[in-house]
Amino acid sequence: MAEKHPIRGVLAELDSPAALLTAARRVREAGYREFDCHSPFPIHGMDDAMGLRRSPLGWVVGGAAMLGVGSAILLQWWTSTVDYRFLISGKPYFSFQAYVPVTFGFGVLFAALAAGLGMLHFNRLPRLHHAVFSSERFRKVSDDGFFVSIEVGDRLFDADRTADFLRSIGATHVELLSD
Amino acid sequence: MPLEPRAYHLPDMPVPGRRALLLGFVGLVLCGVGMALDAPRFLQAYLTAYVFWVSIGLGALFFVMLHHLIGSQWSIVLRRITETVMFSLPLMAVFFIPIAFGLPLLYRWGDPEAVAADHILQHRSVYLNAAFFIARTLLYFIIWFLLSYRLYKWSLDEDSGYDEARRARMRRLSAVGMVLFAFTVSFAAFDWLMSLDAHWYSTIFGAYVFAGSVMAALCFLTLSVMALKRRGLLADIVTVEHYHDLGKLIFAFTIFWAYMAFSQYMLIWYANIPEETVWFAERWTGSWKTVSLLLVFGHFVIPFVLLMPKMMKRRPSFLMAIGLWLLVIHWVDLFWLVLPSLQHEGAVLSWMDPVAMLGIGGVFCGLFWRRLARHPLVPLGDPRLDASSRSDSH
Q: What is the reported pTM?
């Protein structure tokens, strides 16, 4: 049984958003890194409590927008001044005014795609299963459950001691997770 | 969280308010001198300054109505201050008098000789004539007065007790008001600014002026809040989260302004019809070209880049600097709308430009502070006031 279902982590339930916030801080202060907090709604201050760095997504989106803008200008410049020179109402071949809408559109398109795909990437999605879903209790997370999970990959992880630690910081229920 | 009255009440008219009023009166006296020395140039400076201050009142009216319509929570702590800015609109009707009297000097369509020699102006005289122009302006002010008076009065009534029915009335009035607002602002922009060059027309012009106005009103609001906080008021009521939201809105409206400005420009550039392009041609010759470029960079590119990072919106000293800058650039924008159609020798500042700003602005700010001191700085009767001042309410 134990070989078939190795331990993946520990799941602890807290009884309120405030308790979850405190627990997140204590878990971080104890030195854990591979942990996560789960609640039915966003809790303000959670990023600080968990010690999360700012998401790098903004830079990715900004870079993609620049790429979109650059490629749109390149495309329009090449088509209208090199590949297929066509005089339109006596305007210069390279008329940046006319390029703005397409350039803007490309910028938005690239940025939106980068935001969507980047969000999936940084959230390590798509993913078909995670050990927390093997817990019956965890179903409450979309309704009224507040949880902290610490994963087995953490260098401080030790099934018994980590579970004891979680109890000591106010967890109302602690269980081991397996697949 | 029970509030201490000293956290939200100006005890009396503060010194800056009295100073502003005094400077305003000095400015108005100097305006009289300007009028006597060079009436046409004075009226141009005066119209620019006049539209500047009206636009701040209108932007505030928009923000108050929007607040009621969407029932937002974060802006409740800012609502009373916005309402106080909004209620400067009735005063602005008085300041229209010099424009009404100076009409033939300011607008070519108001000068009978010019009209007699110009068949386009004759054709348009059905709409563009002095009597109808003044009647329209009067109508705008009646509408703005009714909207701002009712919304301000009901809000003050609420301080002594919340009433769901009254709140519903505020919401209904805002819905009707928003439609009236869209028409009156657009037509006021057509009448006061666009008709300076009565041959030229652009249907997006009203939206362009509106975009700049809301941005300027948000900057004025931000600076007022900062001035109050510097006096130790609104501590713990208005927080950095509110600055962040104001910064985001200012950011959005600089972009919206640029969107409107470019939409207007590109269609005219593409169609390339002389009667339309002349307006931009005037603004792309000589020193006006520099002013046009200043607007492109100062009203859009630089604020866009600077306001993008989160940190910039959350640092009051920075937000104050950019708010002041955007108010200056809003004036430049109006200067750029008014002057080139009338002054063909280029962008030349006159001593009357700052004097007109001082005259109207001094009275505007002085009376703003006086109204602010009379009532609580926050809508005490709003049941969600407490939630609004907490940072987790967004």
A: 0.90
